[in-house]
Amino acid sequence: MNTFETLFGTPPQASASAAGRVNLLGEHTDYQGGFVLPTAIPQRLTVELGRNGTQEHVLHSLSSGQTLRVPLGEKGEGFAPYLVGCFQLSGVQEGLNALISGNVPSGGLSSSAALEVATLRALRGLYGLELNDVDLALRGVQVEHEFVGVKCGVMDQMASSLADTQTMLLIDTRSLERRSVPFPAGAEVLVIDSGVPRRLAESGYNQRRAEVEEAARQLGVKELRDVTDLAAVETLPEPLRARARHVVSENARVLRGLQADAAEFGQLMNASHASLRDDYAVSHPKVDELVNLLQAQPSVYGARMTGAGFGGAVVALVRVGQAAAVAQAVIAEFGNDAVQLVP
Q1: Of the residues 179, 199, 230, which one is the last residue of a structural domain?
Q2: Which are the catalytic amino acids?
Q3: pTM metric for this prediction
Q4: Start and end of every GHMP kinase C-terminal domain (predicted)?
Q5: Distances, alpha carbon 202 to alpha carbons 129, 144, 284, in Å
Q6: In terms of Cα–Cα distance, which of 264, 251, 149 is closest to 200?
Q7: Domain boundary among 117, 151, 179
Q8: CA distance 203 to 331
Q9: Three-state DSSP class for 51?
Q10: Which structural domain, as residue segments, surrounds residue 206?
Q11: Strands, sheet with 313-319, edge to edge from the N-terminal-most edge strand
């Protein structure tokens, strides 16, 4: 197996890791000041760094086997902008070697945020940067906006930087206030990757953001977070009406979920998926099929797509102790493209 030293000839000078995340409720609300309920997953990405004394960055991914060389001042292609953006925004003015390893899948579980957070943590160690965990998350968001071209909200990086696997993390994405929330009693989380790849910058993600920003403008509010009466969005033309209806109803589902037992929380997840599929139009037929199979299982309280959509993973709330059996049954019916991830 390749290691940093076998690839680059010297040991790494800094190393850090970060977790992926799965979001149970609160999808596509974080760029409208809304509420979200993610949790960290056990899968992590690790970034090792070392100075190379040249005027280029040499970046290697163990999962793909790909090595990219990026001259200083350029952002590169492929996975390079995620790292190079972190380098440039952190003031790096020398060539670095980087090795990426880990097991966070690329569909809907914030592998990009985990890569950014791990890189920034490693840079913090290498250069003694004064970045707290919230600063680090916000810099990751800046990388997405300025180097990757995805106008994401703050949830993914905040979750990767601050969440744990034992609780959900309620984040008010406007104030960045946050607190840990226990999972509903008697339930556990199951995540399954649909096997459908996606590329956010090439999908409708930025279009959705533009649509809800226009909806907020037409309603005369700073963000749709400020709309609590669903009737208010009915004055909008389509598709703005449907997009705004999702955001407003999704915020209400998150807040309701804080007091819900497992059965009601599952119903909220089911409603969230329907809203994402029908009003926000960010699901995918294969993802819908996988969600339907999960929702039909007697031990499943609820299931939905998770992440930005257009493919990727689904999450289910399952009766405690039943996740493995549910996953086996559903994957057998769905086909071999699906992969169980959690627990």
Answers
A1: 179
A2: 156
A3: 0.92
A4: 260-334
A5: 33, 13, 15
A6: 149
A7: 179
A8: 26
A9: strand
A10: 183-342
A11: 300-305, 313-319, 187-193, 339-342
